[in-house]
Amino acid sequence: MGWDRKIQGAPIPLNELFCTRHPTSCSALLRHKPLIMTAMDTRWKPNVTVAAIIEKDGRYLLIEEHTQEGLKLNNPAGHLDPGESPAQGCARETLEETARPFTPKELVGIYLSRFQRPQTGEDITYVRMAFCGDIGDVQPGLSLDEGIVRTVWMTPQEVRDSAHRHRSPLVLRCIEDHLAGQRFPLGVIHTDAAVSELPPLQP
After folding, report:
1. CA angle 77, 79, 85 (to 5 degrees)
2. Which element (helix H / strand E) includes 32?
3. Residue at 169 is within a domain
4. The total number of structural domains that make up the chain
């Protein structure tokens, strides 16, 4: 429900409409409106991320990276950038973090997770879209993204045994789903043309 309603085509603020119909409660509405508006302005939103689940000869490609919690293992992954589809974002992040070209072929799954960092008060919910596909060779002249120490190929059991070093429980969950044969066509995620075609809003 928005704050505006239309009467005979003219937008009227909800507080004015309410005062007209319920004058005895008008003062209470106006007294609480700042609190309600603050809640609406700070609407909760998850962080959208993409991840590459890369398997070759029975081993999975992970990255080892510096985090605020120390050196951690992760799938090649990162945040979706403006103007790109999830598959495009996954290809970009994989190239940046492994120096290898990656072509997403199928969706492994869509995951929801939550992370809390008590020392800073951060409480973050992530939506992760994980893709599998074809990985190329290391590209000469490309360096790994800032904070990434190395890439490493690990067997499924090695990934399981290192769970205490994973940046997120989704690192193993995505690999287990891939091992179980979970796949979906890329077309189940539709990226509207407006994502890339609309220009940025001017301040």
Report:
1. 95
2. helix 26-41
3. yes
4. 2
pTM of the full structure = 0.79
Contact of 129 with 52, CB cutoff 8 Å: no
Distance of alpha carbon 94 from alpha carbon 107, whole angstroms: 15
Q: Is the dihedral of CA 118, 73, 162, 177 positive or negative?
A: positive
- Per residue in 44-77, is it b (16+ CB within 10 Å) or e — as a string? eeeeebbbbbbeeeeebbbbbbeeeeeebbbbbb
The mean per-residue pLDDT over the stretch 52-70 comes to 97
Tokens of 124: 């973050």
Which amino acid, one-letter code, is at 135? I
What CATH number is attached to the domain comprising 65? Answer: 3.90.79.10
Cα(54)–Cα(94) distance, integer angstroms = 10
**What does 121-189 look like in DSSP terms, one character per residue?**
TEEEEEEEEEEEEEE-PPPTT--PPTTEEEEEEE-HHHHHHTGGGBSSTHHHHHHHHHHTT--EEGGGS
Residue 36 belongs to a domain: yes
CB 86 within 8 A of CB 129: yes
d(CA 55, CA 62): 10
Domain that holds residue 18: 10-41
Please report whether residue 153 resides in a domain: yes
115-147 confidence digits (pLDDT tens): 998 889 999 999 999 999 999 999 999 999 999
